[in-house]
Amino acid sequence: MTASPLRLRLDRDALVANWRTLAAMSGAAACGAAVKANGYGLGAREVVRHLAEAGCCDFFVATWGEALVLADAGVAVSVLHGVRDADMAVALAASHARPVLNSMQQVRRWREAGGGACDVMVDTGMNRLGIAPADVAAGLLDGLQVETLMSHLASADEDVPLNGQQRDAFAALRGRTGARRMSLANSAGIALGEDYAFDLTRPGIALYGAAPVPALAGRMRQVVMPEAQILQRRLVPAGEGVGYNLTWTAPADTEVAIVNLGYADGYLRCFSGKGMAMAGGIPVPVIGRVSMDLTAVDVSAAPDLGEGDWLAFAYDLPATSALSGLSQYELLTGLGARFDRIWGKVRFRFSVAKGADAYHLG
User: Fold this and answer.
1) Which residues does residue 77 pair with via DSSP β-bridges, in sequence order?
2) Residues 6+ apart with CB under 8 A from 227
3) Pick from 59, 133, 126, 127: which is nearest to 97 by CA?
4) What percentage of the chain exceeds 90 in pLDDT?
5) What's the CA gap between 234 and 257, in Å, rounded?
6) CA gap 330, 85 in Å, rounded
7) Which of 202, 219, 83, 104 lies closest to 153, judged by CA?
8) Which of 106, 148, 217, 318 could cross-link to 101 by cystine, CB 3.0-4.6 Å?
9) What's the CA gap between 248 and 287, in Å, rounded?
10) Which phi and psi angles does 223 have, rounded to 5°?
11) Are 206 and 220 in contact (CB under 8 A)?
12) pLDDT band at 1, cuts 50/70/90?
């Protein structure tokens, strides 16, 4: 296979530093890691390897297909979507993974099959997945080998009374199930304080450089930077337009680079006329309309840049979310399969507003 004209520079040290920060904020609770959606798009196997080497012991995926990818990783995996009939053969045979049982039907299915250790999700107010606290009180889980009793905060990124109500409803279940551990807090939940941490926290998006709440702003290091290769450099005369519908018109003769990047790769049309790239330490703006596979960049300030060279695109998650109107989750998980994912030691200081302060690959 040939190398892709797209790559993601991924900073292993930043990923580990983010986990350690969140672990410290979790107090006495253990700190796990959500690696669903293929490690939030960065590659679950590599994310797990780096975090396990740093000391993380608990990992969370959505489906059994995702769990099987990690079968030889040597870590414990919880499958958040539980166990369907179609999953039972795999789930019963998987020594590395446990289902997170989410409904009365899943609990009965697991019990009747003689399943071993499991986790259980309790709905304390989100009305998404989970059994009711009343079902716990009624003995639904009696006889099950429950490793972790979980719930999920609906609005941890907001200062609302529901957070405290969910915490208290969950705390009331302590000692009612025989579960070895209790777990409530996601990334934003960790920032609410140690009384939300219980025995185990489950950060996700913040591990990868996002700051879903102000308390995490400036504390999470950037993990990912997209890069795209220049396919052509061209001179656009003054008065001529660029891209579909010619939405940008050259105010003067302008040097333009066309790069192998577009909305099919997760670099969406909302970056048209807003995005920023960097050429050898010089910020260069995206111009015209982002298309499926191509994006245009004004490289007049970078006279030595040409075909085959690479541009790095600003992708600090909080700043890029504010610029684009997309959530930090969408920005990360939307990055496409055409990117080569390259892990290493990287230092990013590249602000959408300020351009390139520093960008070092090591």
Assistant:
1) 59, 97
2) 6, 7, 8, 9, 310, 311, 312, 313
3) 59
4) 93
5) 6
6) 31
7) 202
8) 106
9) 6
10) -105, -30
11) yes
12) low
Which residues lie closer than 8 Å to 11 by C-beta, 6 or more apart?
221, 222, 223, 224, 343, 344, 345, 346, 347, 348
Instruction: Name 324's bridge partners.
Output: none
Residue 280's pLDDT band, with cuts at 50, 70 and 90, is: confident
Quick: pLDDT tens for 33-88. 999 999 999 999 999 999 999 999 999 999 999 999 999 999 999 999 999 999 99
The burial of 31, by beta-carbon neighbours within 10 Å (0-12 exposed, 13-18 middle, 19 or more buried), is given as buried
Whether 221 and 209 have beta carbons less than 8 Å apart is answered as: yes
Distance CA 1, CA 210 (A): 33
Catalytically active residues, by annotation:
36, 244
Shortest CA distance to 15 belongs to which of 46, 59, 37, 61?
A: 46
User: pTM of the prediction?
Assistant: 0.94
pLDDT of residue 347: 64
Distance CA 362, CA 11 (A): 10
How confident is the model over 330-356, as pLDDT tens digits?
999 999 999 999 999 776 555 444 444
Query: Which of 338, 332, 353 lies closest to 10, judged by CA?
Result: 332
Tokens at 244, concatenated = 């579909």
Task: Dig out the tokens for 60 from the structure.
Answer: 């969370």
The counts of H helices and E strands in the chain are: 11, 21
**3-state secondary structure at position 360:** strand
Consecutive H or E run containing 31: strand 30-31
Q: Positive or negative CA dihedral for 255, 257, 258, 262?
A: negative
